[in-house]
Amino acid sequence: MSDELNPAVPDSATAEGPETEAEETVKQRKNGLYPGVSDELAENMKSGWADTELRDLEPIPQAAETARRRAALSARFPGERLVVPAGNLKTRSNDTEYPFRASVEYAYLTGNQTEDGVLVLEPKGDGHEATIYLLPRSDRENGEFWLSGQGELWVGRRHSLAESEALYGLPAADVRELADKLREATGPVRVVRGYDAGIEAALTDKVTAERDEELRVFLSEARLVKDEFEIGELQKAVDSTVRGFEDVVRVLDKAEATSERYIEGTFFLRARVEGNDVGYGSICAAGPHACTLHWVRNDGPVRSGDLLLLDAGVETHTLYTADVTRTLPVGGTYSEIQKKIYDAVYDAQEAGIAAVKPGAKYRDFHDAAQRVLAERLVEWGLVEGPVERVLELGLQRRWTLHGTGHMLGMDVHDCAAARTETYVDGTLEPGMVLTVEPGLYFQADDLTVPEEYRGIGVRIEDDILVTEDGNRNLSDGLPRRSDEVESWMASLKG
Fold it and tell me: CA 245 to CA 484: how far, in whole Å?
């Protein structure tokens, strides 16, 4: 990474507002090799550049959907100013940043994904006028484009405000002027908190936590039912994820020679080539690591004879993620005890998926899957029945641990801020997408089970769309039944 210049001052407004002209536009790195910029060089860099404005741009594919979403938001909060930030870059270490990912609320309402962006809905008549506030092109007169650490010659060209208007179907304005505007604003205001400290500081005397939480909850619940664009994006994410799982099976011999990291890297390659990223940290858990629900260290050995629990999902360029799990025999075939446990989880998942249908209670699929797992645990003599007693006391949870699924979308655990009565205690509707993912986990140090069970963890997870007449398994491109998994793996390795 080149390190000649990297200013401490960003080219966006801070909580205190943008710099004055008297202040330095660019501050040098303490140990940079260039002591400064000569007047001659500064003048030279101002001219001789071609016009790169992009004209005749088409709106983004989801522009009609984002407009409808903003209309629903406007109708819910008439007469109130609504502020939805994208967020800012976060420092990873010293002067390097994490890759930026826009807030879900902002991306859902705009389709834009650039840092420092802010969507503002200003009350107007019976509705609102929406404006997207963004950083404009880097300034060539003051040298920002080549001297600022976030200038275009350092991090790449960004869209002009005119280009953004064409892409997102919204008036666009300079975000560096927004904080001052918000400080002067009057009337009721709500802001989505937690993403932009500067914007929140400008509104500190105008908002309340309770009112802002109502905005966050509304935007979370708005995503419970997916539109056709979203369902299409989720299917794209799942299809890429299926190919990522195939990639992993083909290189299991290389993973055995190295570690779980080889599996992580293999899947990540598919995610980056076909999508934006992975939707969450990939769980590449081999052997007893499969009993750790969120094993993301991925630094353990991969051994033939063990199981590999791979829980991973590709995130699309529009930020919709898949979330799929398969538990695979590293050597290609399940042992007798592995198959016994795997088949129990498969039967539980079958029961759970069958319970996903419009009009069903959200909890039904969880209850159906847990009943099957409890029945097996009683049958195997691992817990004393009857099954009703086990379920009432939750005794199966020693080995099942987690709930059987969650909503899926732009967050892997989507709609998390929704009210309990509309989510967990709610009713399934067509267009909802959720995971069904029962599991059994027998810890390596669990002395309450026979030794042959210890260190075996199994989870099977699929992404299920609620349809008008039942459900559709978006991830049925991956086999689930134990014999089908073995045949699938053999065909890929062959």
Answer: 15
Q: Look at residue 342 and give its three-state secondary structure.
A: helix
User: What does the pLDDT look like over 160-192, one tens digit per residue?
Assistant: 999 999 999 999 999 999 999 999 999 999 999
The answer to whether the CB of 51 falls within 8 A of the CB of 90 is: no
> Is there a contact between 231 and 208 (Cβ–Cβ < 8 Å)?
no
With beta carbons less than 8 A apart as the criterion, state whether 382 and 449 touch. Answer: yes
Q: Please list the helix, strand and coil fractions of the chain in percent, rounded to the nearest 5, in that order.
A: 35, 15, 45
Distance CA 150, CA 161 (A): 17
Name residue 240's amino acid: S
Q: What angle is formed at CA 133 by the lines to CA 5 and CA 11, rounded to 5 degrees? A: 15
Q: Which residues contact 133 (CB under 8 A, 6 or more apart)?
A: 117, 118, 119, 120, 172, 173, 174, 175, 177, 178
pLDDT tens, 207-248? 999 999 999 999 999 999 999 999 999 999 999 999 999 999
In sequence order, the β-bridge partners of residue 311 are: 283, 325
pLDDT in tens, 55-82: 999 999 999 999 999 999 999 999 999 9
Closest CA to 166 of 112, 95, 209: 112
